[in-house]
Specification:
heterodimer; A: 174 residues; alpha+beta; OB fold (Dihydrolipoamide Acetyltransferase, E2P); five-stranded mixed β-sheet; B: 139 residues; SH3 type barrels
């Protein structure tokens, strides 16, 4: 029996309605990355550029170990820091060769810096309603920085607040 | 009359613990290897940079510095220093985020020169560290 033309028509209309709902849903661009086998995201609006992980980083003496150094970005210099300590994660730099990592040039309201990440997974537009509030069960040391949780490709991704990260780092944490 | 733009900065460059350090040459009066200026205090750079570690070796060279209030003192180095002209376009202020966490107060700026990083030091801040060290030793 041939498929009902009416059913096809109704199915197309249903799809169109869903599309309309999706367009209306506010979305946020997220940069999703991994650090020490955990998954995090930062709003795309705070990431100005993604650099290859093998970019030459110059060690700066007299800095804490969470400072990897500085890089030359088109004739200017930018700091590169590691967030592992701040996020309660082991230092992954030695285990992960830099050629597979990336440096995110992050800009907060008052500060900016390069952030070393283990692996850049994706840059995606996510509907805001897909981001769940951070649960109370979140480890205490993560609570100041995590604004929400997201399921992305079956991975649990914590959405981070760059200004909270920079503020804590400046205060000597991490 | 407009000032002539500065194209390069004369600095005295030295290596310590595998890193490059430098400060403005205008604060260096002279250099020496012997102990013929015993009346001026001699402070090893290693004791200023890593005050909690015992210096591995004695100074092989000293630089006589003129710090604040025209005070003279000697900075002991574990490697020979050299005078270079650092092009101004390779000198950068310390990035703001790093200023907040710097553990060595004499670090003032950075230079990327011939594909190496040079930590540029503030001689007045070095002198303050030296004064503090002398005070602790004599206490």
């Amino acid at each position: 029996m041939s498929e009902s033309q009416l059913e096809k028509l109704l199915a197309q209309q249903h799809t169109r309605e869903q599309d309309i709902v999706d367009v209306d849903e506010p979305v946020i661009k997220l940069v999703i990355f991994s650090l020490a086998e955990y998954y995090f995201a930062l709003p795309g609006a705070t990431i100005k550029e993604v650099l290859q992980g093998d970019e030459a980083v110059f060690f700066v003496p007299g800095m804490p170990s969470s400072v990897e150094g500085v890089i030359n970005v088109r004739g200017d210099i930018e700091s590169v820091i590691k967030l592992n300590g701040l996020l309660g994660l082991p230092d992954s730099a030695e285990k992960s060769p830099h050629h597979s990592s990336s440096i995110l040039l992050a800009h907060g309201n008052a500060m900016h810096s390069g952030l070393r990440v283990e692996r850049l997974l994706d840059v995606v537009d996510i509907a805001l309603n897909q981001i769940q509030p951070a649960p109370d069960a979140l480890p205490e040391y993560l609570q100041p920085y995590v604004t929400g949780l997201l399921e992305f490709n079956d991975l649990a991704v914590a959405v981070l607040d760059i200004d909270a990260l920079f503020a804590a780092w400046q205060q000597g944490q991490g | 009359m407009s000032a002539v733009p500065l194209l390069s900065l004369p600095v005295v460059l030295f290596r310590h613990a595998g890193q490059n350090f430098a400060f403005e040459a205008q604060y260096v009066s002279r250099q020496g290897v012997g102990d013929d200026l015993q009346h001026l205090p001699l402070i090893n750079y290693a004791d200023l940079f890593t005050p909690n570690l015992q210096a591995a070796a004695t100074a092989v060279q000293w630089l006589e510095l003129r710090g604040s209030l025209a005070r003279r003192w000697r900075l002991g180095l574990q490697a020979p220093a050299e005078l270079i002209e650092l092009p101004v376009d390779c000198i950068y202020a310390l990035p703001a985020l790093l200023q907040t966490r710097q553990q060595f107060s004499a670090l003032r700026a950075l230079a990327l020169y011939q594909n190496e990083l040079i930590a540029l030091l503030d001689v007045s801040a070095l002198q303050r560290l030296a004064d503090k060290l002398v005070l602790e030793v004599t206490r």
